[in-house]
Design goal:
Blueprint: E1 17-21, H1 25-36, E2 40-44, E3 57-59, E4 62-64, H2 76-82, E5 89-91, E6 98-100, E7 106-108, E8 118-120, H3 126-137, E9 141-142, E10 145-152, E11 160-166, E12 170-177, E13 179-182, H4 186-195, H5 200-206, E14 210-221, E15 238-241, E16 246-251, E17 262-268, H6 270-275, H7 281-296, E18 304-317, E19 324-326, E20 331-333, H8 343-357
Parallel strand pairs: 1-2, 1-13, 2-9, 6-15, 13-20
Antiparallel strand pairs: 3-4, 5-8, 6-7, 10-11, 11-12, 14-17, 14-18, 15-16, 16-17, 19-20
Helix pairs in contact: 1-3, 1-8, 4-5
Bound molecules: flavin-adenine dinucleotide.
């Protein structure tokens, strides 16, 4: 890291160029706030699309929200931002989320949810995609571009440069950044800062954060009766389960704006996911499918079954503050894991990160 002091935002606010790594809700909330304040922002995303864990998997049978299931809104700033996403965010009547025992019996239900359950439509990834559109149009969003190192800029050592690996365009160096924001899961932020030998104090602070993995199963039953007439299996649309493998089940086709084919998303619990983290897909699929049958009573063979492994899914121990920012190096970190495990935590964290830079 350079010994020269880096310029502060207030010294040269009009011409600041800020790199945001990660285009989940935290990264995009941060980036759009910085752009709205007049800064130049480049967002780097290793995946093909934006949204991160607010994800939708498209299949021939319809989409699956295989990450975030729904979100709740408690922060007025999040509520205000959502009001700009005209029509994209809709309430999901989960017909009250049930609580099931190990055998799939309903042990608690019927209480109307205290808070509305919101989903983006037509898929969970639509919200962040919408907010990222201006960045995409202006060429400030670099998809399929993984940041592998953060270094002092070779030409202007008081600034930063990023080394990236991109699909199709190989290794590249992007230079001239006044500030760098890592809006990625804590373990990945830690690894990137460590390998880049930046932000040692921050690396240490991130060590207390703990995030559990999650295996997700996606199932489609196209031969089931039309959903408006009858369902196969249970009459509820979403449930938390105490089954030793499964924590959550939701009927995708019950969400607003989705296709009609009977589809289920099933999420394994953190302990089981951790124990089976390195198992192969076929083994995990077989075990979760068996558990799904036990819980729902659905014995029909699905026409579509696939699993997805989230290595960094649910925060178990958060950082305890909305973001971390090192004023000397002008590197910051944000993400849901700073505050908790919810979409809104990601939004608030990204917003607070941007406000700290401003
Ligand atoms: C299975 C599951 C179920 C969930 N259910 C719910 C729910 O019902 N309700 C709820 O509120 N929340 C839920 N969550 C949590 C919610 O998804 C997160 O809180 C939120 O999406 C986190 O957003 P984020 O921007 O902090 O991180 P992410 O969404 O993880 O975004 C980080 C982004 O950074 C990118 N990235 C990482 N490293 C690099 C790199 N080196 N270079 C470039 N890009 C990089 C990633 O590809 C990703 O797009 C769930 C999560 C999972 C996985």
């Amino acid at each position: 890291m350079t010994k020269k002091s880096r310029p502060r935002a207030s010294e040269n606010s009009a011409s600041r160029h800020i790199a945001v790594i990660g285009s989940g809700i935290a990264g995009i909330a941060c980036a759009r706030t910085l752009v709205q304040a007049g800064h130049r922002v480049s967002v780097f995303e290793k995946n093909q699309g934006t949204g991160g864990r607010m994800a939708t998997r498209d299949t021939g049978f319809g989409g699956f929200d295989h990450g975030t299931q729904y979100f709740t809104v408690r922060d007025a700033r999040f509520e205000k931002a959502l009001s700009t996403a005209n029509g994209l965010v809709r309430p999901w009547s989960t017909n009250t989320v049930r609580i099931l025992d190990e055998f799939g019996r309903v042990v608690a239900s019927a209480l109307p949810p205290k808070e509305a359950h919101w989903v983006a439509s037509p898929g969970m990834n639509a919200l962040v995609k919408h907010w990222a559109e201006p960045l995409k149009t202006s060429g400030s969003l670099l998809l399929e571009t993984e940041v592998i190192s953060i270094e002092a800029d070779k030409l202007e050592p008081q600034r930063w440069q990023l080394q990236t690996e991109g699909v199709g365009n190989g290794s590249r160096v992007h230079s001239g950044f006044d500030d760098v924001v890592l809006a990625i899961p804590a373990a990945q932020a830690q690894a990137l800062l460590q390998s880049s030998r930046q932000g040692k104090a921050m690396v240490k602070a991130l060590g207390k954060v703990s995030v559990a993995p999650c295996w997700t199963l996606m199932l489609a039953f196209p031969h089931a009766p039309h959903p408006h007439l009858a369902h196969i299996g249970p009459q509820w649309n979403a449930a938390r389960s105490t089954h030793h493998r499964i924590a959550w089940l939701a009927r995708e086709s019950s969400k607003p704006g989705r296709g009609p084919v009977e589809r289920w998303t099933v999420q394994a619990n953190p302990e089981w996911s951790q124990r089976h983290l390195e198992d192969d897909d076929a083994r995990v699929k077989a075990k979760l499918l068996k558990a799904f049958s036990e819980v729902t009573g659905i014995r029909a063979e699905p026409s579509h079954a696939e699993v997805h492994r989230w290595r960094h899914a649910q925060t178990m121990e958060p950082l305890g503050k909305s973001h971390a920012w090192d004023d000397k190096s002008r590197i910051g970190v944000c993400g849901d894991w700073c505050l908790g495990h919810r979409v809104e935590d990601g939004f608030v964290s990204g917003l607070e990160m941007a406000l700290a830079i401003l």
